[in-house]
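Protocol step 6 of 9: fold each sequence in the batch and record its structure tokens directly after the sequence line. For illustration, a two-sequence batch is reproduced in full.

Sequence one:
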Amino acid sequence: MTQTSSGRSAFITGASKGIGLAVARALVREGYAVTITSRHQDEVEAAAGGLVNEQEGAQARGVACDVRDAASLQQAVDDHVQAFGGLDVLFVNAGVGHFANVAELSIEDWDTMIETNLSGAFYTVKAGIEALSKRGGYIFTLSSLAGKNPFPGGGAYNASKFGLNGLSEVLNLDLRDRGIKVTQIMPGSVSTYFGGHTPSEADAWKIQPEDIAQLTVDLLNMPERTLPSRIEVRPSRPPRK
């Protein structure tokens, strides 16, 4: 077991790039030790190595883990607790998106999105509850404005995010007596690699991953008595249609 500079640690899913990696970077700067996960071992190890190189004294672990596998997630969280002595922040970020009219949406794509975006979130939280309860920890679920605003071609994605919002609200009610805070973050357009998109200068108007990371740090620094339970985040000046 290693001791972090702050004594705090965070476990972040889907964090080899994009929002997850930006959150990890921000928390490392705040003195947290972090475990980041991805399905791809080479990518997540490289991302963790980058965090260590960027910040003197940083402690970061990269673990290959598919959030659809509850047993693998539990092992990853248990290993994190063993490495860092506990768990303070659980950032539920892993997600996928396949978009098609319901008539053309494949059963495989439906299953992948529901299992990853919704069941995977449940498995992640289940894996961390015991450790979080010991620290009075904080759970963040990364949802989307698509969790309240349906759009054509978003059948499975909308369903998964509507479900995640509902789960997040129940988590808040079920876990607050354990001293665990829960906040659902619901961004609009974010400049990430999600859905096969490649960020570019044309994304300058969008929310940046670093913006969500700053929001996360700000929420962690809120007074203990106060909980912003749902945060909707939009680009301040989207292009005119």
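Sequence two, same batch, same settings:
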Amino acid sequence: MKITAILLAAGHSRRFTHGNKLLYPLQGGEATAVVAARHLLAALPDCLAVVRAPALAQILADCGLETLSCKPHEQVMADSLAAAVRHVVSRQRPPDAIVVALADMPFIRPDTIAAVAAQLATGARIAAPAYQGVRGHPVGFSHQLFAQLAALSGDEGARSVLQRHAQDIELVACDDPGILQDFDTWEELQRLLPAP
């Protein structure tokens, strides 16, 4: 089964007071989005990043990701996801499924991402990891849902598709708190980072 990873990295970081949160260096000096991208690539080598900032596009391209620069009206989450889905569907050989990850969630382990992809490979329409019973990211979708994802708009990501197909979500239990750890502010990031 051909599975493509989509990294959503087109946000504006409006609440992050220290610049673009996706370019903010984590421990080790790598930017947030780069860490997220490396974990995604380790599990799924076919990876597309949807970006707004040219500097971020170059950094992620250097990591080995295909990049798609979204138009100004595609820079909220659902619009950028829809643009990415339309892009991969237009390929000569479209994927059988996609795994959608967020660039501001750099703490998800590659084995968790691989487990979500494996669940899709067994025939799941939607697959997502769960930590202590709580569903997190990334979320995988089979090709049967591509048309609905490609028609999304607004700032709710794929929430409407998940609500419409709640009975189709197959949870993959994992011991990875990173699936729940995103951040919008510098203070939230500091709470997620290990003590020096």
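Proceed to step 7 once all outputs are recorded. Observation for sequence two: The helical segments are 32-43, 54-63, 77-89, 110-121, 146-150, 159-164, 186-192.
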